[in-house]
Structures are given as C-alpha cells and as structure tokens.
Amino acid sequence: MRSLLFAVTTDLNYDQRMQRICSSLAQQGYRVLLVGRERPKSEKLTAQRYRQHRLRCWFNKGKFFYLEFNLRLFFYLLRQRADAWCAIDLDTALPVWLRARLAKQPFVYDAHELFTEVPEVVARPTVQRVWRAVERFVVPRTALAYTVGPALAEVFRQRYGRAFAVVRNISRLAPGNLPPAPDAAPPQGYILYQGALNVGRGLEVLLDAMSLVDNKLLICGEGDLSEIMRARAAALGLLASGKVEFRGYVLPAALQEITRQATVGIMLLENTGLSYYYSLANKFFDYLHAGIPQVIVDFPEYSLLNQQFDVAEVVSLTPQAVAAALNRLLRDEPARYHQLAENCRRARQELNWQREEQVLLALYESLWAPQPISA
Questions:
Q1: Is this model's pTM higher than 0.90 or not?
Q2: What is the pLDDT of residues 318-362, one digit of tens each?
Q3: Which of 332, 281, 69, 246 is closest to 171 using CA atoms?
Q4: Long-range Cβ pairs for the range 142-145 (8 Å, 24+)
C-alpha cells in the first residue's frame, strides 16, 4: 500500500479541495497524511478517512509566517515516511521538495493557484521576485504536476515547457439531495457569497450593489479584509438594516446546506493578477451543484463553462451592473431565473467530482507505472 503526504498552509477543516483529493486517494487504498496549519481560533479537526496533522506557528501572516511555517514543516517532514510527497502551492514547495529529494522519492506539485500572480504578491515586486525564483526552481523538478483549470495549466506550460495535468475543484454529486424543481417564482432566499475576504474578490463592489437590491446578502468566510468589509457594510447601513450578514468561517457540511438554501450565488473577481483572471474557483461548482444561478465576471474559464451550460449572468464589475443582474434574476425575469436553475441541474450530471476524481487517481497511479524502454 503506497503512502502519500500532502502539505498545505490552510486550516484543514475548511479546505474542501484537499478533503476531496485526500478522501478519494484514501478510498482507493493509499495511506494519506495531510499536513496543514492551526490558527489561534481553529476548531477541533473534523474526522476524515485519512490522517491529519496541523502545525501551530507564533506568526500568522506575512513573511515571518511563511518562514516559520516552512521551517516547522521541514523538521516535521523529517520524522515522516511516504512514497510520494506533494506540495500544495509554492508556500509549501521548498521543504516538501527537499524532503522528497533526501528520500529519493517522487515530488508532486499541486497548484491551486498561480501563486506568483495573486494580488497580494503582484502588489509587492520584491516579494513577487522571490516567489518567482521559487517557482522556477520547483516546477522543473516535479515528477507530477497538476492544477485546477486548463488556462492555468497552459500558463505553466508556456513558462516552463512542461505539461500540467488538470484536476478541477468540482463538487461531489449527491444524487439524494437534488435541488428543488422550479416553481412559478424564484425562491425568496438570500444572496450568497462564499470564500475568502481578500483583495481582488469584488467585495467592495458587491457591498455597494446591495444598496440597490432588496434581498439579503449572506457572507461566509474570513480573510485579510474581514474588518474592513464589516466597517464598510456598517457605514453603508447594511448591517443595521439586516441586508448583509457576516457568518465568518463555516465548516463544509454546514456551508453545503447554506448554499442549497440560497437563491443566487456570487462569483466576482477583479483582474488584479493572472491567478484570478485564469482561476476556476470551487464556489462556481458549489453554486451549480446547489441548483442556484450565479452572477459571475467575464473571465476565461467561467465564461467558457457558462457558454456551454448557461448557469450564470455575466456582468461587468460595477455596483450598478451587479445590482441590475441580481434584480433581474430575483425580481424581474423569473423565467430566466428558472432556466438557469434547470441548467444547473443538468450540468451537475456532467460536472462532478465522481468524474473528476478518475483523472486524479490515474495521475497518482502513473507515478509508479513502468516506464517504456527507449530504443
């Protein structure tokens, strides 16, 4: 039985992509250990079918966090054994590569994003140069590399001349929990934003748009802008009126139910770096699987899927455009709302983790496949 070790800087309770990946590999018979981060207010680890371990740091953000976490991770890895070692994004890549190198075993790179092009890195040229150097060092040394979407895979191929496989971050199909069939009018639920409260997520525009929309907005997640967004909502009178509610961190099982009860999902990003522009976020699929239409920006991956399945309204990133799309779906065009909802029901039969995990399992199987003998 092969053993796999994965390392990530997230809190494992909320990392749905890693929960899917590790669960699928464990079910296939691999011994899996997922190593992550323990925040000061982290809840007890939720039970999974694979092993988990979290590292606690003195520093929780900035360069001192990354330095401390990488050191703690490396010394932890020295005490572990595995048949392959997988780094999730660049912020775990160096210690994982070094451990794999010492053991003379495969090093795997799972790029959840284009780390060198996230807004927080793009805005700091010196920091970006450092991470680009790490990327140039790491990517050519991988035995296996994959990412979340075709557009990011192509960026990596152009930069480094090597193929990246694609394992999309798609929700698991739950046949016994189908979205409700369309009614005469859109259900009077809430608008939902799920995800990090970070720079480049369109949050300022979304809050400004809510002054022009009658429905309530529910925000599930936290991030660097948590306090700033709460202050902005308060200044706009959205908290006092009850039009916006911040739920904070929500565990995946509870978030699935919250999403299922929503009326419209929000998937807005700003073009503040190639990572966001070429992204393919899990929330797009979460909304789709819940059977709710969504409001999205015109970025390549989302537009391509929407052209194929027609599950969203595409908008420019202004408060007026976002509000107009929400009002159209929630109030003015019920037929359009129900058409999108029905399209979600159909699309989820094709876009689901049960299909996507077959790609994942084949990739890891290939790590130990016999290599053809060259002539």
A1: yes
A2: 999 999 999 999 999 999 999 999 999 999 999 999 999 999 999
A3: 281
A4: 142/107, 142/108, 142/109, 143/84, 143/106, 143/107, 143/108, 143/367, 144/106, 144/108, 144/109, 144/363, 144/364, 144/366, 144/367, 145/108, 145/109, 145/110, 145/111
